[in-house]
Amino acid sequence: MHCDNRASTHGAPLRACPRSLVRPLRFSRFLPYFFSRLFLRSTASIIKGLALMVPLIAMSASAQGTAAPPADGVYDLLVGTYTGPKSEGIYTYRFDTGSGMATRVSAAQTVNPSYLVASRDGRFVYAVDELPGDNGPASQRGGISAFAFDAASGQLTFLNKVSSEGNDPCYLSLSPDGRYLTTANYSVAADPGGSFAVFPLAADGKVGAAALTVHHEGGGPVKGRQDNAHVHSTVFSPDGQYLFAQDLGADKLFVYRFTPDGSRGLLGPTERRYVNMKAGSGPRHLVFAPDGRHAYLTSELAATVSVFRYSDGNLTLIQTLPMTKPGFNGEVAAAAIHLSPDGRFVYASNRGDANEIVIYAVDPADGQLHEVGRQSTLGRAPREFSIDPTGHWLIVGNQNSDSAYVFRRDMQSGLLEANPTRLDIGAPVDFVWVSR
């Protein structure tokens, strides 16, 4: 194994060596807590990089989401796509939550912005540039692009772009203090393999070079899909103290302690280190309930939704449900998962031959789910969807059908009403709401 033990004061990615090859004083000088735990316990992850040891100014407890609702009920809706003949990047729509009508306002050119996140105040938008893809060279790295966003005009202005420090970036999260951005690098290629990276954000919205890159190792039993690690999402806990990295290839949910005050490095290991999922299940996306006591996970390869109790960095599995109907024997590919704003319902999309959204009601006593309905997405490959901040509408993108549909949502039953509005968008994937 190639490794490099040279310390870097500016956070350049390095590969950690086995304990016998490491000079303890050289590492303990920079990351005493992180690496003492790293080499004391066996782990499937290889840490590349050094934590950025800088104090942070206290900021808002939540850096993601939108500001106060607009008085007229009209939001800016940003749509990320896979670019090609029918799409050039990110599209901005004006979305009227009274009528459910969406009107295109502008477009910003960028490559494969398949996942987006907006700053809490809506002034900045960050997008992955998902490269190289299935057929691209493994030497090519994906990117993270930063944009300034003018909500009044709906215009995005490019600020800068940095390497994602991995292949096929597919997810973004903002840290609770708003100072860092994380990305999951799925990595179709075994080398460099699945990873996630952490980027500092400047006051002017620009994204800095990666301060930390974490590579996972391992795989699962599904040939061609789990030959190596594939990090598919990075999600901060509601209390802001932990980062969960869902690895589809390794069938694990990795847990890292987030300490931006520098007391233990930017990220460090936890006692448990990871949650094992069923072999071959392929964990993909994780979301937390509004009360912070439960979390919900889609597993792509098994097409299941799992429920966890959450407490202080620990996830305890309490339920797993299939997304398919009894007797279904076609291809499956579970994808996105979201809760209604009131936390009463969980929605999950399933691609493959199903191409539907499954709707679950949440038991308020224990967080467990029971299915209440399912809705065809009227197209192929519903990779992502989103519920508007009022809870009245759900929009889903059919990546392989160049269409998105806006469904009216029944607030009491959670069901999606028939006769949705169609939007023609080339390879739509992700949706972000910004208050005007």
Automatic annotation (TrEMBL):
Chaperone keyword on record: no
InterPro entries for this protein: Cycloisomerase_2 (IPR050282), Haem_d1_sf (IPR011048), Lactonase_7-beta_prop (IPR019405), WD40/YVTN_repeat-like_dom_sf (IPR015943)
A single cellular component GO annotation: cytosol
Superkingdom of this protein's organism: Bacteria
Gene3D superfamilies reported in the protein's UniProt record: YVTN repeat-like/Quinoprotein amine dehydrogenase (2.130.10.10)
Pfam families noted in UniProt: Lactonase
Protein name per UniProt: 6-phosphogluconolactonase
Organism encoding this protein: Paraburkholderia rhizosphaerae
